[in-house]
Design a protein that fits this description.
This protein is of the alpha+beta class. The chain has 8 helices and 4 strands.
Length: about 180
Amino acid sequence: MQVKQVRTEVLNEKIRLENSPKPTDKPTGLGTVRFVVICKSDACELLENAKEVLKIVDNTYDKNWPTLDEWKCILPKKFIDSFDPEMSHQEKIELVEFQKTLSWQEKTDQDKERKWSLSSWLYWMEPENRTWFWWDSACFEEPIKDTHFVIAVTILEWPFPWGALRWLFKAFGAIDVVPEDEV
């Protein structure tokens, strides 16, 4: 991924996080992918919390990428506290070995439920690894207003890794993040 292209996308993302795109705006990259985020309650608050984290991340692209310890001071405490502790080298080796014993479906299910470490999430937010960017979001009306909302991201490649997007919402209490075509 070209870092220059990512920086352009980040600038556009900053604008879209503040103001929804106009109906005449055309998505960049390959287009958009939509997801439904399922929550226990307070869906719109969860959405705003996630957007705030993205704004913070976007504001670091103009500077040197912060260290892990610096990120722990920059990002909201509630977000930081949602992550699992960093794994030791030995724990990473053991996890990889364990995952080799799982079927594809078991591994997929485990990956979907496993908490992330902060460093793992930040890896996918680094300029050279970003492949999705905020396009738009909307809260629903009753009766699902408090438990669901929809988001759209513009993507630069297909397929694209979206685990960090899922964890962005799960970190604030989302039950699941589901591609719209799977709902």
